[in-house]
Amino acid sequence: MNRLRIFFKNFAAGRKELFARIGVFIGTALAVTQIVEYVLNIPALESLTKSVSVGSTDLFAILSEPLVYLGIALVLALLAQTGFARYSRKFKDSDFRISITMGDIFDCDGTIIIPSNNLFSSDLRMLGDRNSIHKQLIQRNRMPKGSQLSSAEDIERQTRERLAEERYTAYVADREPYVFGGESYTAYQYGTLLPIEVNVDRKERNVMLFSMSEFLSPGIPSVRNEDLFLYIDRMWDFIETNGIADRKLVIPLIGTGAAGVGKRKQVVARYIMNTYITRARRLRINELTVSIFPGDYLSGEINLAELKEYADSLIKFPDWEFGESNAPTAGKK
């Protein structure tokens, strides 16, 4: 149902672009018609196409009909207008790229950022009923046959092993441990990332849990509105220091889902792209993909055309040095 709604929304949102596409495709179709007419006059091909029938009409007559190509042109123009939304642009004279996609974040290539709590807990009792990306990760992580662990237990095991590494002692938050179900949990600083490996849709994936929310009570995560951008900055700091598993990073609109902070999603998307660009060389990430939830687009909370224009403006910024001093501001929209 969402795909059908996206189809009609894209169609309505770009009528001017549609007419331009139709013009281009029709011009191409007319050119193809002339080429085909010339080719079909070759005796061997003329004889061959006349010997092949489609229904009661021979192939030569079908291929000689200009309306066939005009019809194909119109269909292609409509498909181009209403196709699945994706944007990808490479920076001039560099290996860096920004992509914007809409759909299932687990279909994207690269290390995926998964918004999580500051305890890095994957206990479903604590995560509650909301359908967060963290919860989707647990539900879709496939365990090998014969495993004695559930998906949540496997992620919890990896989490505890990672947190036992010495480097994470520097990221422990200065606060009392959180106690739930008789078990004590250490809280970590917001912006801390924790890498784990999962198997989603029969594909091994690298993901990083992102500490950005705290529990007001079990099942109710919360993010402080005024600190979201600080957490994003700290996330980049962590990656600069520790790196990631590959050179591609996929990130959703963090802070706008189950633990929503009240910031406009358009602003969050722009801030993510902008801060990536200012640090691209130091991060050693060649491609940033911002993953958009289709419901955000359908509800009007995300304007894909504006986001693409904004990304274009960042890429075309004159005298770009990939440094903070030249970075455009994130905007107030």
CA(first)-CA(last) distance = 30 Å
Strand content: 15-25%
The gross shape turns out to be elongated
**Average pLDDT score:** 77
Order of helices and strands: HHHEEHHEEEHHHEEEEEHEHEHH
Q: Which structural class best describes the helix and strand composition? A: alpha/beta
Total DSSP helices: 12
Helix content: 40-55%
Low-pLDDT segments, ≥5 res: 318-333
The biggest beta sheet reads:
8 strands, mixed
- DSSP strand count: 12
Rg, Å, rounded: 26 Å
Structure overview:
It is built from 12 helices and 12 strands. The chain has helices at 2-13, 15-40, 43-51, 59-63, 66-82, 124-127, 133-140, 151-163, 228-242, 265-283, 294-298, 304-315; strands at 53-54, 57-58, 86-90, 97-102, 111-117, 178-180, 183-185, 193-200, 203-217, 220-222, 248-252, 287-292. Residues 318-333 have low confidence and may be disordered.
Key words describing this protein structure:
alpha/beta, eight-stranded mixed beta sheet, 333 residues, two-stranded antiparallel ribbon, 12 helices, single chain, elongated
Short description:
The chain has 333 residues and is of the alpha/beta class. It has 12 helices and 12 strands.
What is this structure's SSE topology?
Blueprint (H helix, E strand, L loop, with lengths): L1 H12 L1 H26 L2 H9 L1 E2 L2 E2 H5 L2 H17 L3 E5 L6 E6 L8 E7 L6 H4 L5 H8 L10 H13 L14 E3 L2 E3 L7 E8 L2 E15 L2 E3 L5 H15 L5 E5 L12 H19 L3 E6 L1 H5 L5 H12 L18
Parallel strand pairs: 4-12, 5-9, 5-11, 11-12
Antiparallel strand pairs: 1-2, 3-4, 6-7, 8-9, 9-10
Helix pairs in contact: 2-5, 9-10, 10-12
